[in-house]
Amino acid sequence: MPNPETLHREQSEMPPNSPQPNVLAAAPDATLMTAKMWAMVFFTGIGAGLTSGLLMRLLRLVQHLSFSYSSGDFLTGVRNTSAEHRILVVTLGGIVAGLSLYCLRRITGGSGAEMTGAIWHKQGRFEAAPTIAKSLISIVIVGMGAAIGREAALKDTGAAVAGKISDWTSLSPEQRHLLVACGAGAGMAAAYNVPLGGALFAAEVLLGTMSLTNVLAAVITSVVAVAVSWLFLPNVPTFNVAQLTITPSLLLWAAVAGPILGSASALYVRFIGWSETGKPKAYMVILAPILVFIGLGAVSMHFPEILGNGKNVVQEAFSSQLGMGLLCWLLILRPLATAMCLKSGAPGGLFTPTMTFGALLGGLLGEGWSFLAPATSKDSYAIVGAGAMLASASQGPLSSVVFMLELTNHTDALIVPLLIAVAGATLMARKLEVHSIYSVRG
Question: Which helix (H) or strand (E) holds 179?
Answer without folding.
Answer: helix 173-192
